[in-house]
Structures are given as C-alpha cells and as structure tokens.
Design goal:
heterodimer, A: mainly alpha, two-stranded antiparallel sheet, B: 9 helices
C-alpha cells in the first residue's frame, strides 16, 4: 500500500469516526465527545493535506488536475476552515455535519481517482496552483455557511413550532399561519460582577418555554447558539468565501487570458461561477438590510450553496465546455 | 402663477428624483442581480451558439421553439442581457453617488447610553482627572481614535475604530468601474481574430500586417493505462513559427498553450490544430472540375453537383489494420479521413477513406485522399485595456476585503458622579449591527474595567 493510500485511509477513517463522535456531541453536548471529536477532525484534515502532498511528491504531478484532487482539497479545506472558525468562535456544534460532508466528498472523490495522469496542455500553468485552490477553498467556505444556515433554519422553524404550541396551550388568540420570530437579539441590562452590561436576551422564547416544560427537542435546540449569533456566523463564513470566490474568478480570468486569449469565454463553468457570485453578492447586499437578516439570508445561503454544487459538480459532470477536464 | 416651464421643470425634477431613488435602492440592485443571475443560468443550461437544427434535434419541440423565439441560444449577446448589465452599472453608479459617498460619520452627539443595546456601566472610585486619563490612555493604546466634546454641560469621550473602512464599498465600486473601463477600452481600440496556418505556409494578420509562417507543428500524446482503460493523454502542442513584425526582421519562435507569442503588443495563442486533407474527385479516371484544389480542413465541404456536397468530417489518426476501424490513438500512424455525402442539410452517408487510397462513389466517380498536412489554429488579440482590468480587479478585491474584514465601530463614553464615586457608561454602535460586535464589546468592557481600576492600560481589541 502506497503512502498516499494509507493517508487517504486514515483521513476517511478519521472523518467517519469524527462524524459519529461530533454528531453525538451535537446531540448530547458532552465535552468528552468534543475532546475526542476535535482531534479526529484535525487528524483527518492533516492526513488529507499530507495525502495530497504525498501524491505530488511521488508523481511530480500537481494533484489538483482532476476531480479526485479537487474534491479531496474541497473536503480538506472545508474541515480546515471549520477548525479555524471552531477555535475562534466556539463553532464545534457544526462539526459533525461538516465532517459528514467531508467524508462523503472524499468517498465520492475516490470514484474519480484514475491514478496519476499528467495534465493536459491547458492545465500546464502556474495558474493552476493559484486558481484551483482559491476556488475550491471558496466552495469549502460556502459548504460551512450552508451547514450553519441549515442549523439556523432548523432552529428558526423549531421556534415557530414551539411558539405555536405555547400559544395554543395558553389559548391565546393566535391567528393561523406562521408565528413571527424575533430574528435579532434584544438586549437587557444584566449585572455581571460589579458591571452592568447589555446582554442579548434569547431570540427564541418559544423554544426556551418548551425546554423549561421538559420538551427534549426544545432542550436540544436551546443548546444551539441564538438565531442572531448563527446569522452572524453565516455572514462571517460567507465573508471568507465570497472574496475567495472573487479572487478565484479573477485569477481564472487571468489564466484564461493567458491560455485562450480572452478573460471570459462564456464557458458553462465560468458562467455558473458567476451565478454563484451573484447569489452571494446579493446575500451581502441584502444582509445590510435589517429585514433581510435572519431567515431570508439563511435561505439565500442555502440556495447559494446549491448553485455552488451545480457549478462544481453539475457543470463538470453533465455539461461539456472548456473546463471539461473535470477539475 | 406657475408657468408651463416651471411645471415642466418640477415634473422633470420629480422624474429624476424617482429615477435616482429607484436606482439607489439596494433592493432594486439585488433585483437586477437576480435577473442577471437568472439569464446567466439559462446560458449555462441551454447550449449557446448552435444552429437551429441543433435545438430542434436536442430539445423537445416546445422548448426548442421557446429557445429560438426568445433568442436564448445566444443569450449573452442579447439585448436583454446587455441591458441588464447596463442597468446594474447604472445602479452601481447612482448608488455610489447617492448612498456610498454621502455616508459620513455620524455626528458626535450625546446619547442615552442605556438605550443602546451594547452598553455597560462600570462603577469606579478615585480622582476624576486620574480616571479620565486612564480611560483615554486605554482607548488610545487599544488603537481607538479618541475625541472629547463638551455636550450639554457634560464631557463626552468618543472613540472610533476603522472608520476609514466605511469606504470599502466605495473602493469595490471603483474597482468595478475600472474593470468596465478596461474592457470598454478593448472594445474601442482592441481587436481579435483567428487564423489557421498550414505547415509551410504563411498567414498575414490583417489588422497588424504581421506575417507568421508555420515551420512545423508538433504534438505529444502519452498512452496511459487508467482504471477505465488506455487513454492517450495530450501533453503538448507547439507551433514552431517564423514571424515578421513591424521592424521587418524575421524571427523564429514557438507558440504553446499558456505561452502566447507577443508580436508588437498583439498576443498570439495556440488555440487548435488539425489536419488539412487533399481530396481528389475523379470520374472515369479524370479529375472533375469541382474537385478541390486546396487542402480542406475538418468541417469544409465541396459541391459535387446539384444540392449534393462532400464534407470532410474528421481526421482519424490511427485505423486498426485488422478491423479497419478507427482506434482511440489520435497520433497519425495509419491515418484516414471520415467523409460524408450531404444533400442540403441532410447527411446521406459516411465513409472512411485511408490516406493514400480512394473509394468508389458509384457512376464512375471515385474520391481519393492522396495526402494530408498538419495545420495550427492561432488566436490573436490586441487588448490595450489589460492593465486597467488588472488594476480594477486589485481595487475591487481591496474594497471587498476592507468591507468584510474591518468593522467600523464607535464607542460613546461618559463619566458621571461626584467626589470619589464615579460611574463609567460605555455604549457601542457598528455599521453591521450589534450582534457582530457582541463578544468584542464584552472583552473590551472587561479590559476597560481592569485598566480603569488598576491603571493597567494594556491594549485590548
């Protein structure tokens, strides 16, 4: 068994085990699970980068010239960006889902592994070492924003459900339809030591009430960060992904100029990336409006990731074009 | 009494105001983004620039009709698409002047500190002057820009950070404008084209007069065994040329993929290659009048009388001598050409003709292919706006990074009390809401308490 295959096996094993452990942490909030899961995520990520490095060292061929290599980087970067955010913002609750997607991506990548193939002439450029990692890293960041957006939506609709339940129990005259949820935090002055400090009040009173009355689902949802915090996290992750995608598109255009003589050829891959860029640029514009922060922004983030997946895999696999070498 | 001219002026002013209000709206800009994205997505899904027959053959008839009637087959160059981009640029310009540039720092004014969500109150003991000095030192050492004002008989301290970052959006918008200027300059002054040059022949570029002679075209394919089978991976395409530029001096050069040749500022790119084939049509052993005199390239056709024509479809590098069938090896080891007989737009029959052989077409006609020659496909482009586009891209990225990674924030600080009992009120506002600054504010308040109580002025961001 070659070194890269051993490292690949280690990465897959670490991701699969890490997924189970961090999902258990997600459900139980057991610190022990976190202490086991976090190192597994780190081991998987390091093994994957080492595997890509080993492939490069063994063959002398840049490993990101095919879908196998780029999907490997996608999962490795997804986990790396997650780890950075997890350490910085206590983001661990999302880890099980991130590792699950990383494991699936890596498993799927192995089906595209054709061994060591020298790159076609169009890919023999220093730009491949700049453009592809940037674009794939942006996809990885958007994967993370997608995970947090889904968690946001789960909590948001959970709040609607529990708020409706509470309202019915209280026989309040609640009209049919959705219960409005306060997306932004409201703050209350709380004494902390000798300081009085403005502290955010929970923005999911329905979940809080149901959790107090013993609902297991509500108790679990209550352990997630507040909706406002999740919204800020989505914004922060997209704030990493969008500049990366922008630089990726720009470096791609510069490479296209050098390779084909034009910045832009209206190739399906280019235009699909443009669609994704437009979606996330719209997200950033709309996020400046209070009315669009929260659930609407979270749905845009989910839609944005769908366009990313279409751009990344859909166009590569189903639509032929100048990017048909399946990177 | 208002004159007609005044009514007209007022009406015009109202229209202009409505226009500016609409185009400065973020929602309108995002609506344009959505329309742009939708049109672009259509272009990704619907194959572009094909013939009408292609759409009728590959799409359901109602869909093909829709594509052709709405010009969705060439959407990126349609009036609607260009119009949306023009509207976006207009919106960007109006938004820049109406919203981004006028966005000034909020005035230094007294606020009700406990009404601002991010606020804190710290009890302090000590001499007023000493406390004020510690507060000022703390903020200065933490990188805040501190100003003091006497408002309503009370002394206020205002601390600002990253206020310059409010201009990030403006910088990004300027980047877009520079990119647009660069591409417009190319449209106005640049040119592009393509040419195919057969080995041993010379092509003259009409816009520049440059001459390029193809001495030799070389290619390399490596047979590689993969899990899916043997594939012939292209490794290199090289045009070995001799060119003459403005100075009239002949020079030798090579043109490779990713390595264009620069002749007097115009770049020449290795874009394609192919095999020109010589076709000879004979009847009863005599060359016919419509037999082509020049070599044909893939896709070329020549008339054989009436509405019928012979089309050179494809060059086959290697034909298996045992089976007579084309193999996957593109290298010309045992080459042949695929030829089709077409009537109008309908393909009647196809056949494989080995190079150096001929086939019987019936009625005494024979079609032969005595030899072939490699040609190179060169694209060329003169783009005077290239540097501007590069600068614009850099500016755009800088603007995005400023807008995303620097958070302009203001702190309102007021010390109240008397004698040795004081209360320090601090409130924070940012341009991105309160939640995004929550953790930093908490850390800041804790550090401020430590600094003001112990005189410790260690920076804390």
């Amino acid at each position: 068994m070659q070194l890269d295959q051993i490292l690949l096996a280690i990465a897959i094993a670490a991701y699969v085990t890490g997924t189970l452990v961090l999902l258990t942490y997600f459900l139980s909030r057991s610190e022990l699970m976190l202490r086991i899961g976090a190192p597994l995520a780190i081991v998987g990520c390091v093994a994957q980068f080492a595997e890509l490095g080993a492939r490069w060292a063994t063959s002398g061929i840049w490993p990101l010239t095919n879908l196998y290599g780029s999907l490997s980087l996608f999962s490795a970067m997804g986990v790396l960006i997650f780890l950075i955010f997890a350490f910085r913002y206590r983001f661990w609750f999302a880890g099980g889902f991130v590792l699950l997607i990383a494991a699936i991506a890596l498993g799927y990548a192995t089906t595209w592994n054709e061994g060591f193939m020298p790159p076609v002439p169009a890919l023999q450029s220093y730009w491949i070492k700049i453009h592809v990692p940037l674009v794939v890293s942006s996809y990885a960041a958007f994967m993370l924003s997608f995970v947090v957006s889904v968690l946001y939506l789960i909590k948001y609709y959970g709040e609607q459900r529990f708020a409706r339940g509470s309202a019915m129990k209280a026989a309040a005259a609640t009209p049919a339809g959705s219960i409005p949820v306060t997306v932004r935090s409201s703050y209350a002055a709380l004494a902390e030591d000798d300081i009085v400090i403005g502290t955010p009040r929970g923005d999911t009173p329905g979940i809080a009430a149901a959790a107090e009355s013993g609902s297991a689902g509500a108790q679990w949802l209550a352990t997630l960060p507040s909706l406002a915090k999740l919204d800020v996290m989505i914004y922060r992750v997209i704030g990493v992904g969008l500049p990366l995608l922008t630089i990726g598109i720009i470096t791609g255009a510069m490479w296209a100029k050098e390779s084909w003589g034009a910045y832009w050829q209206w190739d399906p891959k280019e235009t699909a990336a443009l669609v994704s860029w437009i979606v996330y640029a719209s997200y950033m514009h709309l996020h400046t409006r209070n009315a669009w922060r929260g659930v609407r922004s979270a749905w845009i983030s989910v839609f944005g990731f769908a366009t990313i997946m279409f751009c990344y895999l859909g166009v590569n696999i189903w639509i032929s074009g100048l990017h048909s070498y399946k990177v | 009494m208002a004159t007609a001219a005044e009514y007209l002026r007022a009406g015009l002013q109202e229209t202009v105001d409505d226009f500016l209000r609409l185009f400065a709206s973020v929602y309108f800009a995002v609506s344009l983004f959505a329309t742009w994205g939708f049109f672009t997505l259509i272009g990704v899904v619907v194959e572009q620039g094909k013939t009408q027959d292609f759409y009728w053959a590959n799409y359901a008839p109602p869909l093909a009709r829709l594509i052709l009637r709405l010009d969705l087959d060439n959407i990126y160059h349609s009036a609607a698409y260009v119009g949306v981009i023009a509207l976006i640029l207009t919106s960007l310009a109006v938004c820049t002047f109406k919203r981004v540039i006028p966005a000034r720092l909020p005035p230094l004014r007294a606020v009700a500190i406990d009404r601002i969500p991010l606020h804190a109150t710290i009890p302090l003991e000590g001499d007023e002057r000493e406390i004020r000095t510690r507060i000022e030192q703390f903020f200065k050492s933490s990188g805040w820009f501190v100003r003091k004002r006497e408002l309503g008989g009370e002394e206020w301290t205002f601390a600002d950070r990253h206020n310059w970052a409010r201009r990030g959006v403006l910088v990004a918008h300027i980047g877009f404008v520079i990119i647009a200027a660069g591409t417009t300059w190319y449209w106005a002054r640049g040119f592009s084209g393509e040419t195919a040059i057969l080995t041993g022949t010379t092509a003259t570029i009409p816009q520049t007069g440059a001459q390029i002679k193809l001495d030799r075209f070389s290619y390399r394919f490596d047979p590689i065994q993969t899990k899916a089978g043997l594939v012939y991976q292209p490794i290199d395409y090289v045009s070995h040329v001799e060119y003459v530029g403005k100075d009239g001096v002949a020079r030798a050069a090579t043109i490779r993929v990713n390595h264009p040749l620069d002749i007097d500022g115009t770049l020449y790119y290795q874009a394609a290659y192919g095999f020109g084939a010589q076709f000879v049509l004979t009847k009863d052993g005599h060359v016919t009048a419509n037999s082509p005199t020049d070599l044909l390239k893939e896709g070329d056709a020549f008339s054989v009388g009436g509405d019928r024509a012979l089309e050179y479809d494809q060059f086959v590098g290697t034909v298996d001598p045992k089976t007579g069938r084309p193999t996957a090896d593109p290298r010309p080891n045992n080459p042949a050409v695929v030829v089709s007989m077409i009537a109008g737009d309908t393909k009647l029959a196809s056949g494989l003709i080995p190079i150096g052989a001929s086939i019987d077409l019936g009625d005494g006609y024979r079609l032969g292919v005595p030899h072939y020659r490699v040609y190179t496909g060169i694209q060329y482009r003169y783009d005077p706006g290239m540097a501007l586009v590069g600068i614009g891209a850099f500016v755009l990225l800088t603007g995005l990074c400023i807008a995303f990674y620097f958070l302009p924030a203001r702190l309102y600080v007021k010390l109240t009390g008397a004698g040795r009992d004081w209360s320090l009120g601090v409130a924070a506002t940012t341009v991105k809401g309160y939640e995004v600054f929550e953790d930093q504010f908490r850390e800041l308040v804790v550090a401020l308490r430590r600094a003001t109580k112990r005189g410790d002025t260690n920076a804390c961001n």
